[in-house]
Structures are given as structure tokens and as C-alpha cells.
UniProtKB/TrEMBL annotation:
This is Twin-arginine translocation pathway signal protein. It comes from the Bacteria. It comes from Pseudomonas fontis. The lineage of its organism: Bacteria, Pseudomonadati, Pseudomonadota, Gammaproteobacteria, Pseudomonadales.
């Protein structure tokens, strides 16, 4: 007698790539992937800001508005290819249809509790999927790059600042 096991959906590399392709198409159709910067920013868009305002305080204790301005300046210096990848990451995190399944944050970012954001970051950091681990590293590096390039952070790490010329 042969038993037939029910097919259980698994998230492997191929299905994640298909999901990502579908999400990218959906983002382009929905217009969420707009490249129009938010007011007072060069690169950051209105859709990016709630997500970043929720994530930044979980990574570093800082003035979020100052850090957003520094992050925007850093993003403006990226190559077009790296900026495109960063915007795709931000789009996937901002669009509700992809945010919920990939992060566990089912509501709006501005309603997310710090503990939820921390669980999302840990989930991506320890994911078996390389793509999610890379997304975690990218988020962490972007926020830390902005933090350490800000003079407000220098005293906390013992850096006296660049020499005065």
C-alpha cells in the first residue's frame, strides 16, 4: 500500500525568486516603487520613512530625524546599481503584501512595537535563506553607516573626529 503525503509548501530558493519577481512586478504596477524623494530628502521616499522610523531606534539610540538625513546623504552617494537594490529592499519592506509574510509585521510600520521590529531583524539575521540574511546585513550596514558618519556618534566610540586642517 502506498501512502501519498500531502504536498507541503516550502520556501526554497526558486520559490523565493519567483515571489521576488512577482513582488517586483506588483511594486511597479502599484507605483510603490516610485523614485520621487520625500520632501526635504534627496533619495528617501515617503514610503521608506515609516519603515526606517521603526527600524532605526531598534538598531541605534539616536535622533531619528538626524540619522534619516545622514542616511539620505549616504544613499545619494551610492552607485545607481546599489541604489536600485536598496530601493528594492525598501519597497519589499514597505508594501503590505510583502511586508507581512517576510517580516511578520502585518500592520503599518508606524504601529509596530520595537519588540516586533526586533523579532523581524532576528528572524532575517538567522534565516536559512541567504537573501533574507543579506537584507538584514544591508539594513544594519545602512543604519550603522549613517550613525558612525554622524559627529553625534563619535564620542560614544572614543573617536575625536577628523583632524582639523
Amino acid at each position: 500500500m502506498t501512502t501519498i503525503e500531502p504536498a507541503t509548501p516550502t520556501l526554497n530558493r526558486r520559490s523565493l525568486l519567483k515571489f521576488s519577481l512577482g513582488a517586483t512586478l506588483l511594486l511597479n504596477i502599484a507605483g510603490c516603487g516610485s523614485d520621487i524623494p520625500a520632501n526635504r530628502y534627496l533619495i528617501l521616499r515617503d514610503a521608506d520613512l515609516p519603515m526606517l522610523r521603526a527600524i532605526i531606534p531598534v538598531i541605534v539610540t539616536s535622533n531619528v530625524d538626524t540619522l534619516l538625513a545622514q542616511l539620505d546623504t549616504s544613499l545619494a552617494a551610492l552607485s545607481p546599481a546599489m541604489l536600485k537594490l536598496t530601493r528594492q529592499l525598501f519597497d519589499v519592506l514597505s508594501l503590505p503584501i510583502t511586508r507581512g509574510p517576510l517580516t511578520g509585521i502585518w500592520g503599518a510600520w508606524d504601529q509596530a512595537e520595537p519588540a516586533q521590529v526586533e523579532r523581524f531583524l532576528k528572524r532575517w539575521e538567522n534565516s536559512s535563506l541567504n537573501l533574507l540574511r543579506q537584507g538584514h546585513c544591508s539594513l544594519l550596514q545602512l543604519v550603522l553607516m549613517a550613525w558612525y558618519s554622524s559627529p553625534a556618534s563619535w564620542a560614544s566610540c572614543g573617536y575625536p573626529g577628523p583632524p582639523k586642517i
